[in-house]
Amino acid sequence: MIIGVLGAGQLGRMLGLAGIPLGLQFRFLDPEPNSPAAEVGNQIVGSYEDDDSIARFADGLSVATTEFENVPASCLRSLAVHVPVCPSATALEATQDRLIEKRLFSELEIPTPPFLPVGTPGDLLSALNSTGYPAVLKTRRFGYDGKGQWVLYDAGSTKSLIPSLDTSPDALILEGFVKFDRELSLVAARGRGGDIRFYPLVENRHERGILRLSVAPADGTTDVLQRTAEEYVVRIMQALDYVGVLAVELFQCGHRLLANEIAPRVHNSGHWTIEGAETSQFENHLRAILGLPLGSTEPRGFSAMWNVLGAPPVVNEVLAVAGAHLHLYGKEPRSGRKIGHVTLSSPDRGSLDGKLERIRVAAPQS
């Protein structure tokens, strides 16, 4: 079987690494040559909007999927003429625009921060009268790792930002600032037959808007909190008839969970599953889109994922830590860029924290 993946970044690479032991082959479509996934399959260098590239990519595939959410939905629709595509163009569209996504949460009775569309400077000032300060202004499309987001603290910061904004009608969304206790995420897989498997809630910590650390299972999560997050995901997956792995990013505020965003793909906060769960998120995504039985999502003790940002780690020091596994993506180092990650596993949380301190030193941020 040949699996087609739109995008050839590190997520595509890890999908390939998970599928090779299953006897799967991979073909990637990406406009950038020599991408990280090219080492684990055949890469077609081409545009997601070029009919010839799409036709060459689709030829002989068993199924096609995506490794990131910003592939044009038109590309998925063109592909679906030739081959099954998971997730569908409809599911992807619902997550590509933050306003549409927030409205989906509301329709499904999933609580979110307050939000309002912004199309003009006047809209922004009116929306701020509703949310108050502070508030978070975001681009409706694109933007990741803190890009395309601005925290507005007062009228002065708003006034200075307005001249640089794209205030076209569908460009921006304003959200109320959430004083959360912590950030969590839930990763889940849904098969073609509707079977859903959930990983445990994960606690995430960000630096400069970029995910730095994920810890699984998150400390202090109750059965009620886990069930609440799972119910949110069930509603989303069923509404979108979603097939594959999906992550929902959440704010915990006391005993409440507010939904922040959907990631319709394998997710950075699920990388710990490669060594820390019975079945990784990558293998379960492949099982799901191929119609195979989903694997167990049970954790193997306590795990953490530490992103390697900007500068290469000191490899000897990382590998000297018991339970540490280094994953490098073959990307050129650049300040703030994710060039790899380290997963850690431990039978108890106390020893996990001690190992993390050693990894922090061996893989500092740049």
Summarize the structure.
This protein has 366 residues and is α+β, with helices and mostly antiparallel strands.
How would you describe this structure to a colleague?
The chain has helices at 10-19, 51-58, 73-80, 89-96, 98-107, 121-131, 155-161, 223-240, 273-276, 281-290, 315-319, 349-362, and strands at 2-6, 25-30, 42-45, 63-66, 115-118, 135-139, 149-152, 172-176, 182-190, 196-198, 202-207, 210-216, 244-253, 256-263, 302-309, 324-328, 338-346. It is an alpha+beta fold and 366 residues long. Strands 9, 10, 11, 12, 13, 14, 15, 16 and 17 form a 9-stranded antiparallel sheet that branches. It has a 4-stranded parallel sheet with strand order 3-2-1-4, sandwiched between helices. Strands 5-8-6-7 form a 4-stranded antiparallel sheet, with helices on both faces. Helix 3 runs antiparallel to helix 4 (89-96). The mean pLDDT is 94.
Which tags fit this structure?
single chain, 366 residues, four-stranded parallel sheet, 28% strand, nine-stranded antiparallel sheet, alpha+beta, globular, 12 helices
